[in-house]
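Hi there,

I know you've been waiting on this one. I reran it after we fixed the sequence typo, so this is the corrected version. Both the input and the resulting structure follow.
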Amino acid sequence: MKESIAISRKSNLTGVTSRMVMLVDRADLDSWEAGNGNIQDIMPYLSPDEREFLMTGITPEEWDDMFKETVARSKDLD
């Protein structure tokens, strides 16, 4: 049964600890954390951003900040 769970992770990118609330089945989360399979197979109902956060602690905002200069440069090349 899925429930709203607040999960904290330390970002592999920035070292900042962030928190995300997601609707997840506790048994699925426990199974993945125990190494019983790939996150996309165990919790396909999570968004790619949620799965990334669980695996790396990186938030969507951190990804945006990391790549905004690259995107700006590529737009200048157009």
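Quick highlight: The chain has one domain: 2-77.

Best,
R. S.
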